[in-house]
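Human: My hope is that you can spare some time for a protein that puzzles me. I am handing you a single protein, as its sequence and its fold in token form. Could you go through the record with me and say what the backbone is doing? Take your time, and here it is.
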Amino acid sequence: MDLVENAVAIDVTTERHLMERARTGDREAFGELVAQHMRRAYYAALGFLGSHDDALDLSQEAFARAFRAHRKLDPERPFYPWLYQILRRLCFNAHRDRRTRQARLAEAAHWLAQEAADRAATTDPQRQAERAELREQIEAAIEQLPAHERETLVLREFEGLRYREIADLLGIPIGTVMSRLYSARKALARQLGEER
């Protein structure tokens, strides 16, 4: 059953007792704390990130980190504010990383377009105008790709990573890397073919 849908209410005394047990490494007690606070943690992460999948992943990661730090639990203080600090840091880091990655992808799209133009450099003004137009079309086409396809394309075409390296870096199967690259290249070819 989905933990987000399986939240239960536990009174303060029960929570304190669960925290005392969880502090000793009791997984069952910690699991009850998770059940109590999962919905709240999920919605907090959703508010930060705006994505169901990311919110679910990071709220679960926050609980995993909390369990690894179970010796720091203080039964005299409520569990959720302690957990929230862990979750908040994860969300801020994810948001920062997402913005950094998007900025790099936008730069990479521009770089690819520039690189294509530079490779076809010529002194003919007519040809230069055509190259400038092509560069703009390529840049626009790359920017329209879904972020996950654009990211995979950048890692392969700009950074020169092998399929296995991309799969390891992104934590996805190698078949997904191949599928994303195929889809990205097909979309680029279709967009550029329609515009020319």
